[in-house]
Write a structure and sequence with these properties.
heterodimer, A: about 475 residues, alpha+beta, PmbA/TldD fold, 8-stranded mixed beta sheet, 5-stranded mixed beta barrel, 9 helices, globular, B: about 450 residues, 6-stranded antiparallel beta sheet, 5-stranded mixed β-barrel, 17 strands, about 20% helix, about 40% strand
């Protein structure tokens, strides 16, 4: 393989590229979906291919193919050059692509048990046991259990002499109970909604989730939600559990700080950002309780890797420091806008997509409070848990979230359960209203395996470490009654 | 592109080599390209060639699915072996009846040779032309121009055999003058039907020159353009227009078939053969597409089926099977809303105080049984007063039940439009929706986008 890649890189140099890289990616993944005692999906998938990216005549070109051989690589290189040459006729600004020294290295996700090596029967048994407990509740009409296992092997070579091999392993699982009665649907999930929690870990991660131990509670809560009171409407104090806060961080911090988005690369699709490069340094994004980092090195984080897809080593960087915006997510082409070097966030979804700036693990650093202290310190408010719905505008300003469940807080105590909780806000106002963040005992890493961006669409696996946090004067109960 | 003979030969080889009780082999190939631009310059330009085989095997009632994009003969033997091994450890799916049997396939042409003219250089030329047209009026452009050639071939051990070539192009455009934005998009199977100047003009007409004003969220008479209406239909399709949602008790159509649910002006159906849409003659199980009407003059009528949901009810599939294993159900992908008797001009003239919406952004489900969704307006949102579009407004958040909105339809335009989501994740298969513009007497806006 190395010889073939080096040959095509040499060919690119001979053809006069300013820069070129090639990524060969092999992916294997297995999905298991259980529903109402049936295995609705048992799939094993494999794909292999390569993509060549060139910077030529002042423009980018990219082409790819599933036929991994020397002749096809040469043909694809020519196609990428043709594309770049054409694109060069519609360029305005010069592309600044910061050179880096060659890197030759290997990285493998440290694991104990290969999730793709665990017998399917073992996995089915684990899932069916947990799902069976959910089903014992008569008002739970749909009981589900999911598991996903992934392995990505990629080889990166560039005209700068870099040659990096990585093997990334991920897995995750979850359960959910859907109670249906009288035209109403209520869902409860564990450990998180939308298929569970995922990590760059081995099967030991799934075992540690202990799905079966939580199944009874999950089923009960889904049933209880059917007769719970509706979330009240008004302005109140909100405490979010760490899983919901993970998505809050994702949508209202992670995406707005992608520098390619800020510069307009997603303008016609997912939109732009209210953040501008000149805000780095002076802008108060959140209160002084809010410290956020981007950390691609966090052990087990779903957004953890060895090197990004431009050959930059994984790193940890501050994003919000006591609420002040101090950095953005950057690439080799965009970092010069901040007069800095790339902080290694260019990631591609497979062999047939170009790298884009993506979140790694975007973490809200722990604070000082326990959850119990936060609740005890709150006269009146709501505690909301587990995401059910999310939406944000094309500049990442106005957001609205719904959670699966909530509880009223009165006089420092958790009170009645509420159903269909929703809340809405304006991003910097919301983060500036944060007056308490949970400590490291309540801090947990969450894996979001379904972050969409780009055209053609790409899915990134990203992580968010969070602890529960409190926010003041938040509008809740958004839905019109009736 | 592999070609019909080679594709079917490959699939038949797989079927004949299988020791399963039933076997289905589906091949999807793609030769596609996408050119993205922002600030009137091309910033991303990509091309892809791929072919994926999806193999579904059945042992008794045990089902497993394996996929690969390695189409070499040696690899396919391993694939069969892997599929059978997986099926052996599966649990039986007791309500499984059978993969579909053969039916006569409609003869529909879905490939236009004109797609081949979309070379990288030609597409960039068109994008430059858009940029020049926009620049003359003080705008910059951003967007994506995507096109593809796709093959779908399917063979199963019961005798199903189908092959179809598809061409598609999708171009969407946002124009921006620093204060306002406007949007337009185009989708077709025929590159000759693309009119770049018309598209640019449509987008620029949406980007008004005045500063957008702030208005109080609340309930308003609202006119929704086809882009917005198509999004409402897509959500209805996913949430409740298919048999799996009904069988699981989570569809708004549960116990409602035959009852009036929305305004009589509303008729919504799915038809893969209607030439006004992006035609799709058969589904991903090789079953020919049937027309299914969901709302007929406001009355709930029927749902879509695949072989699995149909088998549970002793019915035939309506030809809405998606790629196996498809735990999401037979979601319709060729949605239509019937046109009415009004026009956009008449709708505007009849509005005392209301909102004009070009399209929605980042919509999501809030309450599935009531089809309550939330999202933002975008790229051309206006205040209507006394029968005239007065000025642009800051984008609004809406939170509304689609069913409630469709119950309050007071006008439907005669003219309809083919639109598409356009975005392709994973395997390329372009779908489109044909919708009119509608006027809703009372649509709930719950927030505003403003710092």
């Amino acid at each position: 393989m190395k010889n073939i890649l080096e040959n095509v890189i040499d060919s690119a140099k001979v053809k006069g590229v300013d820069y070129a890289d090639i990524r060969v990616v092999r992916r294997q993944w297995q999905d298991i979906d259980i529903k109402n005692g049936n295995v609705e999906a048992l799939t094993h998938n494999e794909e292999l291919g390569f993509g060549i990216r060139v910077l030529f005549h002042g423009a980018w070109g990219f082409a790819c193919s599933s036929k991994v051989n020397a002749r096809e690589m040469e043909a694809v290189l020519k196609k990428a050059l043709t594309i770049a040459r054409a694109s060069g006729k519609a360029r305005n600004d010069k592309i600044h692509f910061h050179p880096i020294p060659a890197v030759v290295d290997r990285y493998r996700t440290p694991i104990t048990l290969d999730p793709l090596g665990v017998p399917v029967e073992t996995k089915l048994n684990l899932l069916l046991t947990a799902e069976g407990i959910l089903r014992k509740n008569e008002r739970v009409k749909i009981s589900e259990a999911f598991m996903g296992s992934y392995k990505t092997e990629k080889t990166f070579a560039s005209t700068e002499g870099s040659y990096i091999e990585q093997e990334l392993v991920e897995c995750g699982a979850g359960i959910s109970a859907t109670a249906i009665e009288g035209g109403e649907i209520q869902v409860r999930s564990y450990p998180n909604s939308f298929r569970g929690n995922f990590a760059t870990q081995g099967y030991e991660w799934i075992e540690a989730l202990a799905l079966g131990s939580h199944a009874e509670r999950v089923g009960q809560e889904a049933e209880q939600l059917l007769s719970a009171k509706r979330c009240p409407s008004g302005t109140t104090t909100l405490i979010l559990d760490s899983s919901q806060l993970a998505l809050q961080v994702h949508e209202s911090v992670g995406h707005p700080i992608e520098l390619d988005r800020i510069l307009g690369t997603e303008a016609s699709y997912a939109g732009t950002s209210f953040v501008k490069p000149e805000m780095v340094g002076p802008f108060r994004y959140g209160s002084d309780k809010v410290n956020i980092t981007a950390d691609a090195t966090f052990p087990g984080g779903l957004g953890t890797f060895g090197y990004d897809d431009e050959g930059i080593r994984a790193q940890k960087i501050p994003i919000l420091s006591q609420g002040i915006l101090v950095n953005l997510l950057t690439s080799r082409e965009t970092a010069h806008h901040l007069h800095r070097e790339s902080n290694g966030t260019m990631r591609a979804d497979g062999w047939n997509r170009i790298p884009l700036i993506r979140m790694t693990n975007i973490n809200l650093e722990p604070g000082e409070w326990t959850l119990e202290q936060m609740i005890a310190d709150t006269d009146e408010g709501l505690f909301l848990a587990t995401n059910r719905s999310w939406s944000i505008d094309d500049k990442r300003i106005n957001f609205q979230f719904g959670t699966e469940i909530g509880w009223e807080i009165r006089n420092g105590k958790l009170g009645a359960m509420v159903k269909n909780p929703t809340y809405t806000g304006i991003t910097p106002h919301f983060w500036n209203s944060c007056d308490a963040v949970g400590n490291k005992d309540h801090w947990q890493m969450w894996g979001t395996p379904n972050c969409g961006k780009g055209e053609p669409g790409q899915v990134a696996h990203v992580g968010h470490g969070t602890a529960p946090a409190r926010f003041r004067n938040v509008q809740v109960g958004v839905m019109k009654q009736g | 592109m592999i070609g019909k003979e080679k594709a079917l030969r490959l699939l038949k080889r797989v079927i004949h080599g299988s020791r399963a009780d039933q076997t289905e082999a589906l091949l999807l190939t793609e030769d596609s390209s996408l050119t993205r631009f922002t600030g009137s310059a091309v910033h991303q330009h990509v091309a892809e060639k791929n072919g994926t085989l999806i193999l579904r095997v059945v042992l008794g009632k045990r089902i497993a699915v394996v996929t690969t994009n390695d189409l070499r003969t040696s690899s396919l033997k391993d694939l069969l072996h892997q599929a059978i091994s997986l099926a052996k450890v599966q649990l039986p799916k007791e309500d499984f009846v059978s993969l579909p049997g053969p039916r006569s396939m409609p003869d529909v042409r879905t490939f236009s040779d004109s797609i081949r003219r979309l070379t990288p250089g030609y597409k960039v030329t068109l994008i430059r032309e858009l940029g020049i047209l926009a620049h003359e009026r003080g705008f910059r452009t951003s967007g994506a121009f995507s096109h593809g050639q796709v093959e779908v071939a399917i063979v199963n051990s019961l005798g199903v055999e189908g092959y179809q070539e598809y061409s598609d192009l999708f171009l969407h455009l946002v124009v921006d003058d620093g204060m306002n934005t406007g949007y337009a998009s185009f989708v077709s199977r025929d590159a000759e039907s693309l009119e770049v100047e018309r598209l640019a003009n449509e987008a620029m007409e949406k980007a008004s020159r005045s500063e957008p004003i702030w208005i109080e969220p609340g309930e308003y008479e609202t006119i929704l353009e086809p882009y917005a209406v198509s999004e409402l239909l897509s959500f209805l399709g996913t949430l409740g227009f298919h048999a799996l949602a009904v069988q699981e008790g989570r569809s708004f159509l549960c116990d409602q078939l035959g009852k009036k649910m929305v305004d009589p002006r509303v008729t919504i159906y799915d038809d893969g053969l209607d030439p006004n849409g992006l035609q799709v003659p058969f589904d991903f199980e090789g079953v020919p597409k049937q027309r299914v009407t969901f709302f007929d003059a406001g009355v709930a009528r029927a749902v879509t089926h695949d072989s699995l949901t149909a088998g549970k009810e002793g019915k035939l599939s309506t030809g809405h099977g998606l790629i196996a294993p498809n735990p999401e159900g037979p979601i319709p992908i060729n949605l239509f809303m019937k046109g009415g008797e009004s026009s956009l001009e008449e709708m505007i003239q009849s509005t005392r105080k209301g909102i004009y919406v070009t399209r929605f952004h980042y919509t999501n489900v809030v309450e599935p049984m009531k089809a309550v969704i939330t999202g933002m307006t975008r790229d051309g949102t206006f205040l209507i007063e006394d029968g005239e579009i007065k000025q642009p407004i800051k984008n609004l958040r809406f939170t509304e039940s689609i069913l409630r909105a469709l119950s309050r339809v007071s006008a439907v335009s005669a003219e309809r439009r083919l639109t598409s989501e356009g975005t392709v994740y994973s395997r390329r298969f372009m779908t489109g929706t044909v919708t009119p513009a509608i006027k809703v007497d009372g649509f709930h806006f719950s927030g505003i986008s403003s710092l």
